[in-house]
Structures are given as C-alpha cells and as structure tokens.
Amino acid sequence: MNETEKALRAALIGAWLLERWEVQYADGHVTLPFGADAHGLIIYSADGWMSATMCAARRTQLDAPTPNSASLESRAAVFAEYLGYGGHWSLDGNTIVHHVMHSLNPILIGSEQRRDATLSGDVLSLEAAEQTPRPRIHRIRWRRAAGHD
User: Fold this and answer.
1) Under DSSP, is residue 90 helix (H, G, I), strand (E, B) or coil?
2) What domains are defined for the chain?
3) What is the largest CA-CA distance in the chain?
4) Alpha helices per DSSP H over 13-146
C-alpha cells in the first residue's frame, strides 16, 4: 500500500451519512433512486470491515404486523425501498472495493462493489459506472457523521 492509499484509508475510517444518491444515464437523464431526502449510513472500520445501508425517507409500511404475514406486494415494496450490505473493504488506488459477504439482495453476495472515491474535507464522493443494458453512473455523496457518546 502506497502513502496515498494509507492516507485515504486512514481518512475513511468512521461513519458517514448519506447526502445524495443519483444515477445518471447515458442520455443525461438523472434519477434519485430513493428520492431527494433518502437516508443512509456507511461505516468503515480500521480492521477492514464495512457496512452500508440506504433507504427512502418515507418507506412503505407492511400491510400486516410481521413480514411473514404481509402480502407479497407489500414485502416487494419494502424490499425495493431499502439497500443494505456488508463485508470487508480494501483500496485499489483511489477505488474503494466492497467485498460483499451479506446483503438484503442476495445477488450482491460474493460480489465486489468498486467505487471511485474522492475525499474533500468531511465529504466523501463515490462513483461507479454500471454496464447494464442501460449504462449508467451512480454518484453517492456522504458526509462524515458526528461522534456519539
């Protein structure tokens, strides 16, 4: 690990709160997957573990008291408004690599989620290009969370 990576690694340690998640498509169209007021938290530990969650601010409520008794439609809506995964993390230059071990969405388990990182003061900007049938770029902006006792 070079000095630049060591400095970035040290600066990333801690908790970050979501400010904005946008997706820009090749035609220039921009969407906000969980809305302009989405919530999220990403945590990077010094020993290499990470956890990330993002969700809509006003989530759909289940139509029953427990997930198992809720309708499939209700469970699908709740699933669609929340993203969460965790595992360990590493650096490859200025790219943060999330090595996903568990996830709400099982398709992510075992994957590497690569995010180009830019750190400016207390703002962490992550960017990832996704080569799908509709190519797009995810831009996620986080702000360092204040400490809690």
Assistant:
1) strand
2) 3-144 (2.40.128.280)
3) 53
4) 72-80
pLDDT tens figures, 73-104: 998 998 999 999 999 999 999 999 999 999 99
Amino acid identity of residue 95, one-letter, is T
Contact 119, 126 (CB under 8 A): no
Residue 101 to residue 118: CA distance in whole angstroms = 25
Place of tokens 């921009």: 30
pTM of the predicted model as reported, rounded to 2 decimal places: 0.91
Buried b (16+ CB within 10 A) or exposed e, 76-111: ebbeebbbbbbbebebeeebbbbbbeebeeeebeee
Would you state the structure tokens that stand for residue 138, as one six-digit string?
């995810």
- Specify which residues 118 forms β-bridges with: 125
